[in-house]
Amino acid sequence: MTNLDDKVAVVTGAGSGIGRATTERLATEGARVVVADVDFDGASETVERITSEEGTAIAITVDVSDAAAVEAMVEETLDTYGRIDIAHNNAGIEGSNQPVTELDEAEWQQVIDVNLTGVWLGLKYEIPAMIESGGGAIVNTASIGGLTAVGTPAYVASKHGVIGLTRSTATQYAQKGIRVNAICPGVIDTAMIERGATDEAGTETEEIQQLVQQQPMGRMGQPEEVANTVVWLSSTEASFITGNAFPVEGGYMAL
Questions:
Q1: Is CATH 3.40.50.720 the right assignment for the domain spanning 8-188+222-249?
Q2: Which of 6, 11, 150, 210 has the fewest Cβ atoms nearer than 10 Å?
Q3: Where are the domains of the chain?
Q4: pLDDT band at residue 198 under the 50/70/90 scheme
């Protein structure tokens, strides 16, 4: 077991899916958790799940594409817990599956704002707080779409950007005691995949079927399996690891 007693962790997009699984695992390991999401009801439900197991957590509403909201999230965390040791910049959206030439500019911008700018804003406000606390660990959620062309154009571009931003930031702050890594989930059983997995008639789409079949393990991953990687990267067990992008994808990238 990874001991995170008294560590303070901030997780965005924690109202469901990978973010929820990560906050629950962090709390199980002893961390005090900030459950941040644009959906306050979802964040509150996650907090209830954690506190029912005697964990410590608070819910915060945040739109990660809004600088003032991200800054306020960090300030509320410091006001509540006094420090930040771990951050999982996880919030993201997929966008519609339109060819580049047919993609609406506003939708392109929304995906970039949430998936890439949202991670940058997290780093911008989390890192100074971590330096004040003596260092910390950050895990950004990218995707196999950040390593390949799997996904919509804006999504793929944003996730490639997350990996580049992760590597650049890791090199800039390594000597400040800040480690920054990224995870690259494959097909994980979350609401995002569910939205893309079925058509209007409720039938599983061919694209999702192919992705699942292409994974050597032949199944979707579970959010908890991704959370395990996030928690390990956030712990002292990964103390010499920074600037890397870790696929969690059932072997897809090995093909």
A1: yes
A2: 210
A3: 8-188+222-249
A4: low
